[in-house]
Amino acid sequence: MDYRFTPEAEALKPSAIREILKLSFAPGVIPFSAGNPAPEAFPAEAVAGITAQILEKTPIAALQYSVTEGFEPLREELLVRAKAKALANERDRILITAGAQQVMSLASAALAGRGDTILCENPSFVGAINAFKLTGARVVGVDMEEDGLNLNKLEDALRREENVKLLYVIPNFQNPTGITTSEEKRRALYRLARQYDFLIIEDDPYGELYFQGAPPCPIKSLDTDGRVIYAGSFSKVLSPGLRVGWCIADEALIAKFTALKQTQDVHTNIMAQMIAHRFLTAYPFEEHLTFLRKLYARKAALCLGEAERHLAPEITFTRPAGGLFAWCALPEGYDDFPLRALREKQVAVVPGGAFRVQPAEPERCFRINFSTPTDEQIVRGMERLGELKRVMARGR
Ligand SMILES: Cc1ncc(COP(=O)(O)O)c(C=O)c1O
After folding, report:
1. Model confidence pLDDT, tens digit, residues 338-367
2. Atom of ligand 1 nearest to the CA of 170
3. What ranges in the chain are assigned the alpha helix state H?
4. Interior/surface letters 152-186, b for 16+ CB within 10 angstroms, e for the rest
5. Which of 36, 235, 264 gets mutated to test ligand 1 (max ligand atoms within 8 A of its CB)?
6. Nearest-angstrom CA–CA distance, 190 and 154
C-alpha cells in the first residue's frame, strides 16, 4: 500500500533521542542520555497505598469516564498553589492534560498554522518542536546565551519572520542546556510579547527541582493581558508514566484547548489524576520535593565534578542550578565524539543535533543527564569519556 501522509506527518521522523534511548538501556551501556527521573525518586510505596485506597473507596469514579477539564479537586488544589505563586490571575483557568507535552500540542494547534511562525529556544525540547511542526507553522530557533535567549537575535527574528504567533521557552533549568533565564530576560520577553503581539508558552517541568534557591519569577506572574500559557507537570516530581500535567491560561484559551482536547483523548486518565491529587494533598509533598532537590543536587555535583576532572578544559559544560541536564560543547575536530562514546566506550550521550529545529553543521554539543545513571556509573562514565577525549586529542 502506498500511504500518502500529510506533508507535516511525512516530515515527522522518529526522534533521535528515542533511537539513542533504545541503545542506552542495552546491557553495559552507561546512560547519560535519558531524561528520566532517578529510580530512587519514585514514591512507589505511597502510590501503591493511594491506588488501593482509591479503588476501595471510589472505584467507579476512578474507572468511569470523566470530564475533559480534569478531576475537580486536583484542578482546585493546583489553582490554589498557582495563585500562591502569582501563577494565575482572576481570569485564568486550569486544564489537566496528558503531561506537559499535550499543552504544547493543544496551544500550537489552537493558535498557529500554515503561514504562521513559532519561535523557540535553540536548542530546545524536541517533543515540543515536533508538536509545533505538526501544525504546519514555520518553527524558528533563536540562539541562547548563559542567561537565556539572545535578545538581539530574538528581535531580529521578530522583525524578520512573518506572523509570529508563539514563543516557546523553558525558563527553568532548560532541557537540554540546563540554562535558567534571568529575571531581566523574563521581563524583556514579556515586554517583547506585548510589543510584537505574540503569546508565550512557558514550559516549566523542572522549576521545583532547584539545588539552592528557587528560580526567578515565572513569566506567567508578569502576565496582565492573558499572553502567557503556563505548562506544569507531575512527570519530574512524581511519575512521568502517570501522564498528568496541566495548563494555566486565560479562560478563553482554556475553553478552546478543552474543546480540542476532547477530540484528542476525551480526558486525562482519571485514575492517574486521583493518584496525583492524593499525593499532593494527603502526603508530605513538600518533603518529597526537598528529597528530590537534595538527590539531584548531589548527583549534579558528582557528575559536574567528574566532568571537571575528565572533560575540562577542552570540553566545556554548563553548570545548571537545578533540573536534570547539562550541555557540553566540544572543541573543533571532535564532531563524532558522541557516536564514538557509544560505540567505543559504551557511554550514551545525546548529540546536540537532536535538539535543533534545523540541524546545525558541524554540531559540537551534546547533552548529559545526571539523574538516570547510578553514582558509580557517573564516575565510570566520565572516566571513559575522558579516555576518549585523550585518544581523540592524540589523533588530531
Ligand atoms: C522541557 C520539557 N517539556 C515537557 C516535557 C514533557 O513532559 P510530560 O511528561 O509532562 O509530557 C519534557 C520531558 O522531558 C521536557 O523536558
Report:
1. 989 999 999 999 999 989 998 777 889 999
2. 1
3. 7-11, 16-24, 44-57, 59-63, 72-84, 99-111, 126-133, 151-160, 183-196, 251-264, 270-282, 285-310, 337-345, 375-394
4. eebeebbeebeebbbbbbbbbbbbbbbbbbbbebb
5. 235
6. 12
Encode pLDDT of 246-261 as tens digits: 999 999 999 999 999 9
Contact residues of ligand 1, CB 6 A cut-off: 35, 99-101, 125, 127, 170, 175, 203, 205, 233, 235, 240, 245
As a CATH number, domain 44-282 is 3.40.640.10
Query: Rounded to the nearest 10 degrees, what angle do helices 375-394 and 337-345 cross at?
Result: 120
CATH class of this structure's domain 7-42+287-394: alpha beta
CA of 236 to the centre of ligand 1 (A): 8
Count CB neighbours of 25 within 10 A.
12
Is 295:154 a contact under the CB 8 Å cutoff? Answer: no
Q: Domain limits of the chain? A: 7-42+287-394, 44-282
